[in-house]
Protein: CENP-V/GFA domain-containing protein
Amino acid sequence: MSSSQTREGTCLCEANKFTVKGDPMSYFVCHCSNCKKQAGSAFTACVVFKDENIDLTGSQNMGQFADSKTKSGSTMIRHFCNKCGSTMLARPDQNHLPNNWIVPASLIEGHEAWTPQKEFFSENKCAFVKDLEIISTDKA
Ligand SMILES: [Zn+2]
Ligand SMILES: [Zn+2]
Structure:
């Protein structure tokens, strides 16, 4: 069950701040090449929050890129900090996953306690990255 705890998220330079309410809808790791390129990392670890549980009032310094060459075929609007370049929120195609934001977990305080439940595009996984140990997160 989601708690009603509010957590703050920021980019590296803190020019963008936001808050999320409760626990994420889901937490996943993505190995697709687009996520890897944007994040400059071997994979991304992202959480999903519904629109009503995220306050982006303090995030007015984001640029965006419409990524249409995705493996799923739907366009993803990828945001980044205009000042420090941190990878920020992504907006999925509204026909595909409406009214949700995808947020890199690492932007959010306290994310270390969360465990991803799924992996996407494992066929693109870097050779040195092992399978996730999926632990049930049903522990209230
Ligand atoms: Zn920044
Ligand atoms: Zn991806």
